[in-house]
Write a structure and sequence with these properties.
The complex is a heterodimer of chains A (388) and B (267).
Chain A lengths: L7 H10 L5 H8 L4 E4 L7 H5 L3 E4 L21 H11 L8 E5 L3 H13 L5 E4 L7 H22 L5 H23 L10 H10 L5 H15 L11 E6 L6 H9 L2 E7 L18 H12 L10 H14 L4 E7 L3 H17 L3 E6 L6 H22 L1
Parallel strand pairs in A: 1-2, 1-3, 3-4, 5-6, 5-7, 7-8
Chain B lengths: L1 E7 L3 E8 L2 E9 L4 H16 L9 E5 L11 E2 L2 H12 L5 E5 L4 E6 L5 E6 L8 H11 L2 H6 L16 H13 L4 H23 L5 E4 L6 H11 L13 H18 L5
Helix pairs in contact in B: 2-8, 3-5, 6-7
Classes of the chains: A alpha/beta (388), B alpha/beta (267).
Chain lengths: 388, 267
């Protein structure tokens, strides 16, 4: 990544983003720490922190093919679980002490079925995530979290107390607040950070043990106080919305066309941290259940919640003064397919241009991506010119 | 004021030279494996037609198409969407919807009354509904692209071609041939399937009259017939070769850029 940011912490973030194992996680392992892999932002990571485990969000970074995983996946399965499973079958996830899967989508759910047959990770569980966002679903997820809590306690011989959960929630909320400060760098007309740089900060937060990540994030924010280089001359301020986007190169290609990605609603972006877990609950598990089912900005997996999702998109689009929105979707992702059509219609009412892009998990077809983004920017400029 | 536009597509290269707002040279040829070489040859032919001898005589050149990043003599590159819209609007000022079917992609562009692009949709990253699709079908039927286009070959009972994937659709067509289905109904089925796909894309941006069809596949009369039926409107015929719409748009952009630079208004 080409960057003007002079910060040792930021270099650590780049390192953590560009591969699976990273120096901070290795140091954690070398010190006897255990690591719990997990899929999807809806898995309550605070539970792992409270148990003294480092959570690691599963990615397929570094994968070059799916020849091993395609033996157990269809070619029309999403490329994200296929590449991630391939990395596991190649041994890149041998460091995991446990894995929590979830039915976030059917493609990811099937990772669990394959994982328990083909890999020897000592602790593998699957959570059942409801589809709706009402009280019965919050109650269901409360039970799911408590079940997982007991399973972790039994397997890892630890006690997860309410107090340790409260401390974990506090730590994660502090990290969320710090990440939100990072996003504030993108508010000015000439932002201090690109979208590519910001994504590196966010992805690193899912790969570096949380207590250490918080320290690095604080160092990074301190370093940024002396960072004066701003980004000017971009053709448009753009928001990205979508799902499992952990690839900084995808953002780079968009920004190379002259866009500046100033905010987002993605699984590695603002949805992770825009709102905190409510710390006023007596029962921290109730707080987590409420947060993961209802309070945090949801993704299209959840039924009947599109009005709140588009309201969230509009909130950020307004705050960050975006000129256009790009909706990305992994091929064969059924969660995001119809959502983008609705988003297109809704944003049209606001006069905000929208571009939908289908992509593979590994960046391919850069020429087609460039054409679409270039045409999108020309459209924004043309409309601006006509209106003036 | 001599300007040019060049459109290096996946299937063909196109060049248009304009002098003071008039088209004085055009050329279309099959793309080579090297965009720069295609650009050199196609522009050479257009220059010859215009009575010019060198690209140095061109005051401004804008390029577009998938090979747009590799044209040595171009000063600027723009997307095919902007260029097709510009070219179509120059030819038919009342146009509000442009449907472009090229070699490897198809797109629908919605324009404001002034010709500004309001919105566009492009096909997913596969060859369905593009020139490559028609080439594969013509190969499977051994009828050539002319055979797919000929109005006399459009059967009254189009077969359902359900596969959107070019590769699988080719297999489907081979199966229909082996089942003894009349060739005309397979041909009209192919055109209807592409028209159906284009109609879906058009509905996403909204179909507003006037509608024009650009790109190499606009020469397919069978497709035009099927599309007019699907979108329930008559396509407006373009006064120039619809295949050069992108290159023409690029040339008009070149003229506008030159005007902005020099302050001289193009007639």
């Amino acid at each position: 990544m080409e960057t003007g940011i002079r910060s040792a912490a930021f270099q650590t973030f780049i390192e953590a983003t560009s591969g699976i194992m990273n120096s901070e996680l290795q140091a954690w392992k070398d010190g006897g720490g255990k690591v719990m892999g997990f899929f999807c932002t809806t898995v309550p990571e605070e539970l792992f922190t409270a148990a003294g485990l480092a959570g690691f969000r599963m990615r397929g970074t570094g994968s070059t093919s799916t020849e091993l995983s395609d033996a157990c996946f269809s070619a029309i399965n999403c490329s994200y679980p296929r590449h991630t499973m391939n990395q596991a079958l190649e041994g890149h996830y041998d460091f995991l002490d446990g894995l929590v899967c979830i039915n976030s989508c059917d493609h990811v759910r099937r990772v669990y079925d394959n994982w328990i047959r083909k890999l020897g990770t000592p602790f593998v569980k699957v959570m059942s995530l409801p589809r709706k966002v009402g009280q019965p679903q919050i109650d269901w997820y409360f039970d799911e979290i408590n079940k997982l809590r007991k399973d972790i306690e039994a397997h890892f011989s630890v006690e997860i107390t309410d107090e340790s959960l409260r401390q974990a929630i506090r730590l994660h909320n502090e990290i969320r607040a710090l990440q939100k400060q990072v996003y504030q760098f993108r508010l000015p007309d000439a932002p201090l950070m690109t979208g590519e740089e910001t994504l590196a900060v966010m992805v690193a937060g899912t790969a570096i043990p949380k207590p250490r990540y918080k320290v690095l994030l604080e160092e990074f924010l301190k370093d940024m106080q002396s960072h004066k280089e701003t980004h000017k001359g971009h053709r448009a301020r753009v928001m990205i919305i979508g799902g499992e986007l952990d690839d900084t190169e995808f953002i780079r290609v968009i920004e190379e066309q002259g866009a500046l990605v100033v905010t987002d609603s993605t699984c590695y972006g603002s949805r992770l941290m825009w709102r905190p877990v409510d710390e006023s609950y007596d029962d921290p598990v109730k707080a987590m259940a409420n947060y993961y089912i209802y309070d945090r900005p949801s993704c299209p997996r959840m039924y009947g919640d599109q009005p709140r999702r588009i309201a969230y998109t509009r909130e950020l689009a307004k705050e960050f003064r975006v000129d256009g929105v790009i909706g990305e979707r992994l091929m064969f992702c059924d969660q995001w397919l119809v959502e983008h059509y609705m988003t297109n219609d809704d944003l049209k009412e606001d006069g905000i241009p929208f571009l939908a892009i289908d992509r593979e998990y590994l960046l391919s077809g850069k020429g087609q991506l460039r054409t679409r983004v270039q045409a999108f920017l020309e459209t924004i400029e043309g409309l601006r010119s006509e209106q003036s | 004021m001599v300007v040019a536009g060049v459109d290096i597509g996946s299937a063909t290269g196109k060049a248009v030279i304009m002098i003071d707002g008039r088209i004085v040279g055009t050329s279309v040829l099959v793309s080579t494996a090297h965009p720069a070489k295609t650009a050199e040859i196609v522009m050479g032919q257009a220059l010859e037609q215009a009575g010019l001898s060198s690209v140095d005589q061109l005051k401004h050149v804008v390029c577009t198409g998938y090979g747009r990043l590799n044209i040595p003599y171009a000063k600027e590159n723009l997307s095919e969407i902007s260029c097709h819209a510009k070219g179509a609007h120059w030819m038919v000022p009342s146009v509000r919807t442009v449907i472009d079917v090229g070699g490897q992609d198809c797109k629908v562009i919605s324009l404001s009354p002034k010709g500004t692009v309001l919105e566009f949709k492009m096909n997913d990253r596969c060859a369905a509904g593009t020139g490559r699709f028609f080439e594969a079908m013509a190969r499977a039927l051994c009828c050539g692209l002319e055979g797919l286009s000929d109005p006399a070959n459009q059967g009254d009972n189009p077969c359902a071609i359900s596969n959107q994937c070019s590769v699988f659709a080719e297999s489907e067509v081979v199966t229909l041939v082996n089942e003894g289905i009349e060739l005309e109904n397979i041909i009209s089925g192919i055109n209807v399937s592409v028209a159906s796909r284009l109609t879906s894309m058009s509905r996403r941006v909204g179909i507003i009259n006037d509608v024009v069809l650009t790109g190499g596949c606009s020469k397919n009369q069978g497709l035009i017939m099927a599309l007019e039926t699907k979108i329930k409107t008559k396509l407006i015929a373009l006064p120039h070769d619809p295949q050069i719409a992108g290159a023409l748009g690029a040339a008009i952009f070149a003229a506008e850029r030159l005007e902005a630079e020099t302050g001289n208004k193009c007639p």
